[in-house]
Amino acid sequence: MNGNWEVVIGLEIHNQLATQSKIFSGASTAYGAAPNTQACLVDLGYPGVLPVLNEEAVRMATKFGLAVNATVSPRSVFARKNYFYPDLPKGYQISQFELPIVVGGELFIKDADGKDKRIGITRAHLEEDAGKSIHEGLDRSTGIDLNRAGTPLLEIVSEPDLRSAKEAVAYLRKIHTLVRYLGISDGNMQEGSFRCDANVSVRPRGQEELGTRTELKNLNSFRFIEKAINFEVERQIELIEDGGRVRLETRLYDAEKNETRPMRSKEESNDYRYFPDPDLLPIEISAEYVDAVRETLPELPDAKQQRFVDEYGLKADDAGILTASRALADYFEAAASAGTPQVQAIANWIIGDLLGALNKDGLDIEDSRIAAVDLAGLVGRISDNTISGKIAKEVFEAMWAGDGTADAIIESRGLRQITDSSAIEAVVDKVIADNPGQVAEYRAGKDKLIGFFVGQVMKDTQGKANPGQVNKMLKDKLSS
Amino acid sequence: MDLHTQTLTELQGGLDRADFSSVELTQALLDRIARHGEKLNAFISVMGDEALGAAKRADETRAAGGGGVLNGLPIVHKDIFCTQGVLTTCGSRMLENFVSPYDATVVEKLAAAGAVVLGKSNMDEFAMGSSNETSYFGPVKNPWDLERSPGGSSGGSAAAVAARLAPAATGTDTGGSIRQPAALTNTVGLKPTYGRVSRYGMIAFASSLDQAGVITRSAEDAALLLGIMAGFDERDSTSVDHPVPDYVAGLGGSLKGLRVGIVRQHFDSGLDDATGKAVREALAVLESQGATLSEVDLPNLDYCVPTYYVVAPAECSSNMSRFDGIRFGHRAEDPEDLLDLYCRSRGEGFGEEVKRRIMTGTYVLSAGYYDAYYLQAQKVRQLISDDFKKAFASVDVIAGPTTPTPAFRLGDKTDDPITMYLNDIYTIGANLAGLPAMSAPCGMVDGLPVGLHLVGPHWAEESLLRTAFQYQAQTDWHRACPEAYR
Fold first, then answer.
1. Close Cβ partners of A280 (under 8 Å, ≥ 6 residues apart)
2. ipTM confidence score
3. How far apart are CA B210 and CA B80, in angstroms?
4. pTM for the whole thing?
5. Is the predicted pLDDT of residue A1 greater than 60, yes or no?
6. Does the B3-257+466-485 domain belong in CATH 3.20.20.140?
7. Which positions in chain A have a beta carbon within 8 angstroms of at least one beta carbon in chain B?
8. For residue B148, which of A167, A243, B35, B407 is within the disulfide window of CB 3.0 to 4.6 Å?
């Protein structure tokens, strides 16, 4: 990327709230039902029907506001955003415009130098989702599925504080983690529960005035978001350097071609004619209500990460990984409190082998094939020298395959480490006797050969000899 | 037995005494509708079989000792209320074939009380009009003079009640749409406080102004029906959880000490002399009953109509958007593409007045015009509300004419929307301020009825109804019936 240019990014996240029913009707929000089976007359915008606010959506928005240190507005107002589209049944979307429910929050990410960087959150507002147009399998016609219509969304708008695609992704991940911690969203990007638009512009480094931005849509994975922003930044810089100018427009990201292309020009876009929705009363939120919601907040990711460092002595990075989801953090804490004192070792096993195995099988931590207490048991057997780290990998594989606890596997497969000195000594003596050439070379100063001797001993003991013990004994005998 | 001449309350007594059955009563009225309905064009749907079925069930329930307050009593619903399984057109080609899959709360409540629905009454298209001439199904005729308009938008309901085709009808009032037709047809029209009656299932025109009410032949009947229709509805967030008094029981009190406010500007230029005289005589009757008259000032009265014609079209433009030809209602044939589908479905489905208001409303909400029109109108609306609040500090009821003139000729005002809009000059303030208001018959000018308009503070339906009831105890204007329908 060109060092003369500064990148400015602001993100709008559309986050589906995990309410049971829709924001203005009693229809279910469950994903994946047959088209139009979860749309009631209110969702269909039938003549005469009226919206009634789902209070759960208000509670969830309040939780979010508190979690990002924002003001939860004592009074916020629903407005109608007017435009025609077949998947928008009423011809307007009920949203919030001038008076949103959450105002002025913040979030901290790590910048390129690993320092804390504050990202401002301009606002978060409640609105209803639209339905979906379906083209697949329909000949010369369009189908409309209104199951999603009326699903509550919390639109979270950041300040243009992000300076690179990496920062944008870090911020997104943080919000993604946060909403799942709060239990206000499942964060499922494939199902569209967590969607993001990026406003991207560039300006000559040092210039205060913002460049003309484009809005990128259709960013449905962290990877695509990063790629789309990087593509767009390059495109804008090239365009300007070639004497062109950036147009204020909405661009769609095409993941297959890894490019963005214009969707519609904002300059000739809709006038949404926002006005307060006369069918709904303003949302009035009292200080008591906010306090009561605050009481229900879980420990938040940043606080948990810090506690893991303070309480368990973990490395900050490891604590960060383990607190990326509440379930993973809970797993770690369950393992750490199972009686095995080596918590950093437990953390290493989770971050390394366990996450690897989960990832390979496409499982979430909730579906781990190894219970937290059993993983702690495995670590315990390593630290009490029952097995070596190498054997432990084998035991882990077996545990993952469902063969039982570490102890059971060690017993049934006879994997217990040989710590009896006389047994090891016999093998060591045999290896020395069998390899006179290597012994001579070692004694002549080729120290590296110690690895060869250890390997031979381990091979003869099927890996069960204590490597430390073997090493020491070999060195003693070879140097005598 | 002339069942059609009786009020709802009188018919209730007759059914209780078993002087006649609901089936007999319903049949008698259906016969009248068959005889006069077409000429008046008061109905969009007549529900003969359904009504007789309901009447039969009501008779059976009554025989078994059960039934609600209105058990077996026939009424008419304005075609703006959704009625399950029955055509609900809202007077528009857009909904010419729309059969509602559900009942409006008002429909549900009246049905639960045992009311028998005779049919759905004609109305201005989507309630936008003051003469019933904007209906896709043609204008309703005023039973007092078939050349004249019955007013609107609840013109069908008013004409049906005035012509004794039904003892009572529901209506809706966004800017005088119950009270003006009531005044022009010699019926009683009540628009309750905004939020008193649920709007659920009532097809929205201007949501912050729309309110359901009734058209009857007596204040007593209006009290009876309001008691059933009123109350909080969890399906309408703008309905208010305010106690519902026994309105009928509240009618009895005297008018002694009632402070009646008169607005000077109401009697200034623009008011027909004879109409003004009739209203003054009515005020004298109130005074003779112990009420005291005093002048009150509504300084922003002149801004009511212009304010209304910004706020109402703004909300209308958005409320009408759901009629897009996609899910229900009129859909243009063989559309070329989506835009063509929208443009032609709406272009063909909506009439001229609806289009005019959609365009006005779209304009006042547009970027660059919003502040100057919509926002400004909201501020003036607040001032108008404040004026009423101040006035009600010194009076209990404001009384005056409902309309500037008696019924005008059909076609007279259709070319000039502004003159038509001015017909609602006295009534619109109550909508902007959300106040309860009613019109009661108070005289005749050249054989055409005149209405007395009463406005009260929020939730003062009881004192309005009592005032009208006591007035009707002293006068016979409300009993007057056009000769052809006696």
1. A24, A51, A53, A78, A94, B237, B238
2. 0.96
3. 11
4. 0.91
5. no
6. no
7. 41, 44-53, 80, 82, 84, 86, 89-92, 144, 271, 273-275, 278-281
8. B407
